[in-house]
Amino acid sequence: MNTKQQTIQKAVSVSGVGLHTGVSATMTFLPAPTNHGYKFQRIDLPGQPIVDADVDNVVDLSRGTTIEQSGARIHTVEHTLAALVGLQLDNVLIQLDGPEPPIMDGSSIQFINALQEAGIEEQNATRNYFEVNEYVHYKNSEKDIELAALPLNDYRLTVMVDYNSRVISSQHAYLNDISQFPEQIASSRTFVFLHELEALFKQNLIKGGDLTNAIVIVDRDVEDGELDYLADLLHKPKVSVNRREGILNNTQLHYPNEMARHKLLDVVGDLALIGRPIKAQILAARPGHAANVAFAKKIKKLIQKNAANQVPHYDPKQPPVLDINRISQLLPHRYPFQMIDKIIALDENSVVGIKNVTMNEPFFPGHFPGNPVMPGVMQLEAMAQTGGILVLSTVPDPENYWPYLIGIENCRFRRNVLPGDTVIFRCEFTSPMKRGIVKMQGRGYVNTNLVCEADMIASLVKKK
Predict the structure, then answer these.
(1) By CB distance 3.0 to 4.6 Å, which of 70, 192, 225, 279 could disulfide with 49?
(2) Are 156 and 230 in contact (CB under 8 A)?
(3) pLDDT surpasses 90 at 336
(4) Distance between CA 186 and CA 175 in Å, rounded?
(5) What is the pLDDT averaged over residues 229-254?
(6) Running DSSP on this structure, what letter comes out for residue 198?
(7) Active-site residue 367, yes or no?
(8) Does the CA dihedral 95-96-97-102 come out positive or negative?
(9) Would you kindly state where each structural domain of the chain is located, as residue ranges?
(10) What pLDDT does 35 receive?
(11) pTM exceeds cut of 0.90
(12) CATH fold of 131-306, please?
């Protein structure tokens, strides 16, 4: 799994008809900055409103997932979002000149192809994973649906479907590595049972559906006269059914378990609405959009519960965003006042820096001799230097500026910092920069415990 955030290198478009609205639209994927996430934009509406791909914006689940914000509605977002997750893209703006993404062939593969053609670009920020740290379970006993998330330092999915059909037996699909999504899952197409087809048309759904973008499963015997009726319904001169296969017009399946694979695709797309990439083992039995969204809301609720005490994740095996050499180029500090060893995350609003505390620190011989404790003022200095990197990131030529700490408020030291500790400092802006002055909140953690915190004011001054 990627450790850095990614976007696309250039804009790319696809066009086609929407599955449920039947409205033709062009959808354009555009690069977006770090921590932007997935956002849709209705460029055909006044003001070109933005719709965040967020589970709290879901307003309809009639055979697809529909989101709405600021009066703008986007139908059937799951196949588009699944493609973005499947390519491990984090930040993309999706512009639409209609109410629904094109259904294309009923899968995600043509979105995948377009995005790969646009190229993938790594960004200078770490991915903000949420690692599921407890068992999360959703169950609908009436429909015999269950979804579960188990802690795992990866993202894997297993899906089982069982429609009690003589045409489709129980099927399973799995994805052990998200990087395999384009090859193993993306081309699996949406499907519908014959007994559902007429009802969907009567509900004013699948206006854009035909035999080129959906698999129609014939789960009962049909007469020749009924085939003529179906042909008229689907705007085809003629349709047929191979009773052995049970697929209308003898459509060839891409996989024997294509239905289970498509359900896995839907789960990937719907869970993208959580708003952050997750690490978990996902198990889904007979999932559907309503269950997927309800499950996603439970995971998002867990994220919100943990947010107040969320300590930045530090994996020492991963390469830093800025190593000590780059830090030395940006900050003027040198021994014995160079306090930060590396920067592991940096975006427009926040930064995370690492300080490895050793017994060789120059302050230990004179500070509490025989009982080495890192001075609070040095903790604050390390926090300020971390914040200095964030302040310098606001200008295109940081080598030409000095970052100065000019104010400290609400400073607290919660626990002792000792030799052998690794302090994780996180600083984030609390106000926009005005005339070179900006406010930040900083916190330091050791082993998930808060050790220090302060509100800081910094000034950015151009070198003469």
Answers:
(1) 70
(2) no
(3) yes
(4) 11
(5) 68
(6) H
(7) yes
(8) positive
(9) 4-126, 131-306, 324-462
(10) 87
(11) no
(12) lpxc deacetylase, domain 1 (3.30.1700)
Q: Residues with Cβ < 8 Å from 301, sequence gap 6 or more?
A: none
Structure confidence at residue 312 as a pLDDT band (50, 70, 90): confident
Phi (first) and psi of residue 28, to 5 degrees:
-115, 125
CATH 3.30.70.560 assigned to domain 4-126? The reply is no
Say whether 195 is catalytic: no
108 with 77: CB under 8 angstroms? no
Q: Tokens 């209705």, residue?
A: 42
Q: Give 375-410 pLDDT, tens digit per residue.
A: 999 999 999 999 999 999 999 999 999 999 999 999
In sequence order, the β-bridge partners of residue 374 are: none
Q: What is the pLDDT of residue 191?
A: 86
Residue of 172, 254, 313, 367 marked catalytic:
367
| pLDDT at position 180 | 97
- In terms of C-beta density within 10 A (0-12 exposed, 13-18 middle, 19 or more buried), how is residue 428 classed? middle
Mean pLDDT of 242-249: 62
* First-to-final CA distance of the chain: 44
The burial class, CB within 10 Å (0-12 / 13-18 / 19+), for 335 is: exposed
Q: What is the pLDDT of residues 364-382, one digit of tens each?
A: 999 998 899 999 999 999 9
User: Cα–Cα distance between 307 and 315 in angstroms, integer?
Assistant: 19
R_g of the chain, CA atoms, integer Å: 27
C-alpha–C-alpha distance, residues 333 and 384, integer Å: 12
Encoded tokens for 248? 């209308």
- Please give the pLDDT value at position 318: 86
DSSP 8-state assignment for residue 434? B
> Which residue positions form the known binding site for Zn(2+)?
79, 262, 266
Number of residues assigned to the chain: 464
Tell me what pLDDT residue 416 has: 95
Among the listed residues 270, 213, 212, the one whose alpha carbon sits nearest the alpha carbon of residue 84: 270
Annotated binding-site positions: 79, 262, 266
Alpha helices in 139-222 (DSSP H): 181-184, 194-202
Partner residues linked to 458 by β-bridges: 405, 438
What type of residue sits at position 372? P
CA 361 to chain centre: 40
Asked if 379 contacts 413 with a C-beta cutoff of 8 angstroms, the reply is yes
Per-position DSSP letters for 89-129, written without gaps between them: ---EEEEESSSS---TTSSSHHHHHHHHHH-EEEEEEE---
Positive/negative CA dihedral, 50, 55, 58, 64: positive
Q: Are 222 and 81 in contact, with CB atoms under 8 Å apart? A: no
Question: Catalytic one among 195, 289, 313, 333?
Answer: 289
